């Protein structure tokens, strides 16, 4: 075919038309998303949402509802996201209440996931009552490709079981905790000067969300259990500086653990390094 | 048919293809949205969360700061709008009571300067 026989005017018209169409549909009048789901929120707003979810959980103790809400954020591992946010908040000097709430919720989810298998296949029922026109937030699909609630009616026969209770021990008012173990740890695989604290209740279950206060000559800091649920719900750690002597106690009441410091340890090759401490508190 | 007519037919066809592609096949994807664009039921659930959290600490300032995330409307207005919404949606009495408590507290609340969300 000769070039001069091509319908250039039609090709140019087509290309021009497609360009105009795309300009209008992508730039001038793009699809409007006024009814967005929480999963599309900016990360800062997601953090705020997680903090409020955790605070609401701390108030109601409703782990089922908290999990449904967290699922809407689309985090691949909600417990991990909560833990990371708690650590970030702590590092940034944020509110201890929020840190505690995030840590407790992370620990509760972790515990629930390991002890109670999820048996629902497509949807998580919530606490919202079934009725003729249930709120759309009453269900969320578990399918990762479409993590948002359906736009329209939820089946009226939906059951709303009460979520099973979590086995995570929460801090309670009771007898003051007693220091039962204070051991020097010489393990070169651990960070130098690592102070490991474990807190258990009277039933010997580890307790998340406990505030631990550590003081030294001219300073004081606090940290919380439950931020490393992969080690233990009642576990927390702190890195001690060499040649500083610390005293540690629990904010909710405990024996003080005085004279804590990093001892020197010998490695197999004879080198010296700073060891750590392992401390355990238990409620009598 | 003149060349101009053919040109305009081709252009119209191109515009149609462009619009179908831009609106249906590959629409603009939004991410990093703000809370004021949330769908009504998600907004209502957020306000309910704030009301639940308010139950334990009774901290009206904190609750008002949290509601401010939803936009520039007064916190009490947001709470009352949500109350009306969840009444229609058939939420439980407990949820209604929590939200009523918050709305009541916000009606007498006076904003303080400074502060931010924890």
Descriptive report:
The complex is a heterodimer of chains A (284) and B (118). With 284 residues, chain A is of the alpha+beta class. Helices cover 29% and strands 19% of the residues of chain A. The longest helix of chain A has 21 residues. The radius of gyration of chain A is 27 Å and the shape is elongated. Chain A starts with 7 loop residues before the first helix and ends with a strand. Chain B folds into 2 domains: 31 residues; 73 residues, no CATH class. In chain B, helix 2 runs antiparallel to helix 3. Classes of the chains: A alpha+beta (284), B mainly alpha (118). Chains A and B meet through helix 1 and helix 2 of A and helix 1 and helix 2 of B.
Put the structure in a nutshell.
Chain A has about 280 residues and is an alpha+beta fold.
Distance between the terminal alpha carbons of chain A, to the nearest Å?
Answer: 95 Å
Low-confidence stretches of chain A: 116-166
Strand content of chain A: 15-25%
The chain pair with the largest interface is:
A-B, 60 and 55 residues
**Using only CA atoms, what is the Rg of chain A?**
27 Å
Number of strands of chain A: 10
How many domains would you count in the coordinates of chain B? 2
What is the CATH top level name of the largest domain in chain A? Mainly Beta
CATH fold-level label of the largest domain in chain A:
Immunoglobulin-like
Question: What are the defining features of this structure?
Answer:
heterodimer, A: 284 residues, alpha+beta, Immunoglobulin-like, 2 domains, four-stranded mixed sheet, four-stranded antiparallel sheet, 10 strands, 29% helix, B: 118 residues, mainly alpha, 5 helices
Which helices and strands appear, and what pairs or packs with what?
The complex is a heterodimer of chains A (284) and B (118).
Chain A (H helix, E strand, L loop, with lengths): L7 H21 L14 H18 L2 H10 L5 H14 L4 H20 L62 E8 L8 E7 L10 E6 L2 E6 L10 E5 L6 E5 L6 E4 L3 E3 L5 E3 L1 E7 L2
Parallel strand pairs in A: 2-10
Antiparallel strand pairs in A: 1-10, 2-5, 3-4, 3-6, 6-7, 8-9
Chain B lengths: L2 H23 L14 H18 L2 H8 L7 H15 L3 H15 L11
Helix pairs in contact in B: 2-3, 2-4, 2-5, 3-4, 4-5
């Amino acid at each position: 075919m000769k070039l001069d026989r091509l319908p250039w005017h039609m090709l140019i018209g087509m290309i021009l038309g497609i360009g105009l169409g795309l300009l209008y549909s992508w730039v001038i009048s793009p699809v409007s998303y006024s009814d967005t789901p929480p999963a599309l929120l900016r990360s800062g707003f997601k953090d705020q949402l997680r903090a409020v979810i955790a605070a609401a959980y701390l108030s109601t103790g409703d782990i089922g509802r908290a999990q449904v809400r967290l699922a809407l954020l689309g985090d691949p591992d909600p417990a991990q996201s909560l833990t990371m946010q708690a650590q970030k908040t702590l590092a940034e000097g944020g509110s201890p209440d929020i840190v505690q709430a995030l840590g407790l919720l992370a620990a509760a989810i972790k515990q629930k996931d390991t002890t109670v298998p999820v048996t629902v296949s497509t949807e998580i029922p919530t606490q919202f009552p079934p009725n003729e026109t249930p709120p759309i937030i009453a269900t969320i699909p578990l399918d990762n490709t479409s993590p948002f609630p359906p736009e329209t009616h939820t089946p009226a026969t939906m059951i709303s079981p009460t979520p099973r209770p979590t086995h995570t021990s929460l801090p309670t008012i009771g007898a003051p905790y007693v220091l039962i173990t204070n051991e020097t740890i010489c393990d070169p695989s651990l960070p130098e000067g690592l102070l490991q604290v474990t807190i258990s209740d009277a039933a010997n279950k580890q307790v998340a969300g406990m505030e631990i206060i550590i003081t030294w000559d001219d300073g004081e800091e606090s940290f919380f259990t439950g931020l490393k649920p992969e080690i233990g719900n009642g576990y927390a750690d702190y890195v001690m500086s060499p040649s500083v002597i610390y005293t540690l106690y629990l904010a909710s009441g405990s024996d003080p653990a005085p004279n804590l410091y990093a001892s020197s340890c010998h490695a197999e090759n004879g080198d010296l390094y700073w060891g750590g401490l392992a401390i355990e508190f238990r409620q009598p | 048919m003149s060349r101009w007519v053919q040109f305009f037919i081709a252009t119209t066809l191109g515009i149609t293809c462009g619009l179908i592609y831009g609106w249906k096949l590959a629409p603009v994807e939004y991410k990093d949205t703000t809370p004021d664009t949330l769908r009504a039921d998600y907004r209502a659930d957020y306000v309910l969360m704030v009301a639940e959290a308010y139950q334990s600490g009774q901290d009206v300032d904190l609750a008002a700061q949290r509601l401010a995330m939803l936009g520039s409307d007064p916190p009490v207005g947001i709470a009352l709008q949500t109350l009306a919404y969840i009444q229609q949606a058939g939420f439980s009495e407990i949820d209604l009571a929590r939200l009523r408590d918050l709305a009541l507290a916000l009606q007498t609340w006076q904003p303080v300067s400074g502060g931010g969300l924890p």
